Amino acid sequence: MVCRAQSIASHLSPFSSRRERPMHPAQTSSDSRPAPRRGAAMGSRSGDAGARGVATNAVLAQYESEEAAQYYSVILGGGGPDLHYGIYTSPDDSTTTASAKTVTVLRQLAEAAGAVFAPGVRVLDLGAGAGGAAQLLAETTGVSVTCVNLCRKQNEANREAVQRRGLSALITVVDGSYDDLPADWTATFDIVWSQDAILHAADKATVFAEAARALVHGGYAVVSDVGASANADAAALAAYVERMRLAEVLTAAEYEEGLAAVGIDILRTRDMTGHIIPNYRRMLGRIARERGRLDACSDAFLDTVVARLRTEITALQEGEAHAWFFLVGRKCGGV
Ligand SMILES: C[S@@+](CC[C@H](N)C(=O)[O-])C[C@H]1O[C@@H](n2cnc3c(N)ncnc32)[C@H](O)[C@@H]1O
Hints:
binds S-adenosylmethionine; Erg6_SMT_methyltransf; Methyltransferase type 11 domain-containing protein; S-adenosylmethionine-dependent methyltransferase activity
């Protein structure tokens, strides 16, 4: 297979400095975590065990408690399996529609770079959550998807949905961490897909290396993530990292560097930051409307989330907060 380095086809517009960006503001603050890093050193496979453990605990605390699970499912996912930002293009768009649009737009960006989604194509979804993207991709294109995800309740929900939707022949759900994939997955997947999940990694370089290892030569990395704006000042970035309990946040340019360092050439990037505030506003509206039926969520929890969302909207309006971006790369170097 001929695989040659290609220039970046679309530029990371607003990423000329960094911002920060959280994910979905439902975390509570915690103590014992390492100082936030930004642009962490690329290259270590194992990463820092302490930081990794803290990141894992933060993720489990963020998503696995009963109230957090209900919040994410109802408020972020609109009751469906998608735990990522949506693309709202019409006031009438439901969360399900907007979430599906995100998956479709990311897939189309990958297809524009040459990736093929079709029966027989093997996709690995890193941080697959409850399987929203995997289920949609399998249903609409016939690809086979292996989902690897840390949160076991989400994995159970994914498995149930896979069975309910008749996708068992196409989707496999694995409990695990994207920074330590099984040894026998080397050069196994045609596409590594990840949506809004790698931000949680204590050491993104390790995840990039694992993604590259799992890809066949010529395979595609297709990623959406929340990261730092190129323009964020250090104090704003530190505040964001603190609010979001992240170990490190990277700019889109740093994702590019990190992926290039493991032999993945970036073919496409797209800044999606403008879509974040509409998502937060929808989430605020949904909290107001659905509060009565969020029986697992305490008022204190929901009040904290509402305050957090408002803080993030203000930070974005002031131009000092996080970013959301899509990247598509192709494995041309490395093993
Ligand atoms: C915002 S959710 C996105 C889920 C899914 N990709 C989606 O788009 O619906 C972030 C996900 O990252 C997963 N995650 C965080 N750290 C992880 C790790 N070390 N290994 C695997 N998954 C991880 C969590 O389980 C969570 O489901």
